[in-house]
Amino acid sequence: MQLSKGSFYKAFGDKKSVFLRALEFYTDDGVRNVQEVLRSDPSPKAAIRNALVRYADLSSGKKGVRGCFGVLTAAEMLPGDPDIAEVIKRLFSRLQALFAATIAKGQAAGEIANRSDPEVIAHFIVSHAQGMRVLGKVGSRRDEMLKDADLLMEMLF
User: Fold this and answer.
1) Cβ-count burial of 38 within 10 angstroms (0-12 exposed, 13-18 middle, 19+ buried)?
2) Where in the sequence is the domain holding 152, given as residue range(s)?
3) Burial of residue 142, with CB atoms counted within 10 A of its CB: 0-12 exposed, 13-18 middle, 19 or more buried
4) What is the largest CA-CA distance in the chain?
5) What is the pTM of this model?
6) pLDDT single digits (tens) 87-129
7) Does residue 4 belong to any structural domain of this protein?
8) How far is it, in rounded angstroms, from Cα 33 to Cα 29?
9) Contacts by 113-119, CB closer than 8 A, 24 or more apart
10) Is residue 34 domain-resident?
11) Rounded CA separation 69/84 (Å)
């Protein structure tokens, strides 16, 4: 299959459309991966910790220095581009919804205390997880991130 500039833009439109499609693909994949981790353990508390461990893995070493396409795009392109802002807002909203559902499940089962709103806790977790992605760019180590994740779990639950 030969791909020429004309056929490429005929399929995707302009450069911005290509970029948005790539960003949407990346964010959809990321949400799907977090969803799988959160569903992989019957214990909501353990599932949340597993998700934080996954973020530590993605945010350390070579992967961490390379960074997260979503976070890097947000830092570079926002607030100037409303289309990109929408993709990034949708990413964080979807992640927050996944964590909130897991927290609510844990609260209903009595595994997680009902002292805070699941949405508020989820927002805090997503903020922390995305911060891990930024810290990875400057070479934060996995063991440091895991200590942070353990402290977060201790504080919240």
Assistant:
1) buried
2) 12-156
3) middle
4) 59
5) 0.91
6) 999 999 999 999 999 999 999 999 999 999 999 999 999 999 9
7) no
8) 6
9) 113/157, 116/156
10) yes
11) 12
